[in-house]
Amino acid sequence: MPNLFTDIPNELPSEIFEDILSTPNIRIERILSYGHSSPEQGWYDQDENEWVLVLSGFGVIEFDDGRVITLNKGDYLNIKAHEKHKVQATAPNETTVWLAVFYSSILN
Prior knowledge:
The chain is an all-beta fold. Helices cover 0% and strands 48% of the residues. Strand 4 (58-63) and strand 5 form a beta hairpin.
């Protein structure tokens, strides 16, 4: 039986992005972070909407309009397509497990 909390490496030199489900209209991804943040330059500017949930650890998301939102275990957020954002920080002493659902505005 698949489980979101299995197969988590003891060391994460870089973030891990794993598709759990992918169809033409929706993509579900598990993201593993351990003290990671987005690169200094650039913002995520995605064509898809993203609904993201923190399952363990925490993540701090910064938007290009100046908003900063901290997501703790159980917190979720919907990020609209082309809403520029980046990960400012994740938990430095434990693995942050994210569940991200990417979807288009128009579902066929």
